[in-house]
Amino acid sequence: MSPELKKLGPRWVVFGILGLVVTVSLLFKRSTEFPGTPVVKGVYDAVEELPEGSPILISSDFDPGSEAELVPMMKAILAHCWRRHLRVIVMSLQSPNAMPLAQGIVEEAARDNGAKEDEDYALMNYKPGNLAAVLAIGQDWASQFPESYKHRKLADIPAMKGITRLGDFKYVLCITATTSVDSWLLGGVTKYGIKLGLGCTAVMATDYYPLLDTKQITGLLGGLAGAAQYESLVKLPGKATDGMPTQSLIHVTIILFIVAGNILHFAGKRRKPEAA
Prior knowledge:
CATH class of the largest domain: Alpha Beta
Low-confidence stretches: none
Strand content: 5-15%
Mean pLDDT: 87
Shape: elongated
Strand order of the largest sheet: 3-2-1-4-5-6
Number of helices: 12
Helix content: 55-70%
Order of helices and strands: HHHEHEHEHHEHEHHEHH
């Protein structure tokens, strides 16, 4: 055994087995559906019930570090919106880096679904201030977004027709890896009474489940599992559907490692008195 592997000790076995599990699961893909839970269906149903032509606002509040979990759900939601012939407006409260990422996601999804820029969707910009920004667009949209991300005047964008403030949107979706949803809750839901849906990373999801009971959000997509369920609901399997079997196998493998480690630990403790 090489000196490098000796330094790693048992860890290289763990890493090697996990790598093998990932490789095998990716090589042998199988068609799997993930039935939508009531939590995920809360977002799906809210979009499904909107009248044709309704405007919907998506706050894209994540960066490349979270795109593995959040990009698949955003693409599935965009596809659903355009199938329902809804107008999608995208903005961000997170950082200046969020909108270039959102632009790529939206434009790719638009090509896949035949959506036209400025008619079926419009990209706004990053707006700093979090709660202050939400409160401001609740009063006057144009004061915060006088033009689009590509510097087009609002009057020249058909997708923006009839939108003068936050309350003109029939539904707001926050797709986030940060606490930006808190600003939408305080400013949007509490102050202006908007309907809010949430998509977030898996590690964040448990913090926001209580909002479902209080009806502050209509539904919640948590991580890759939530994205896979939404893909199944819109019958558009994508990266989340492909990735879930691999993620599940990794979790099972890690659990088996934990069980094996505990067995070896307690077995070793029993042997020590006999050796003495």
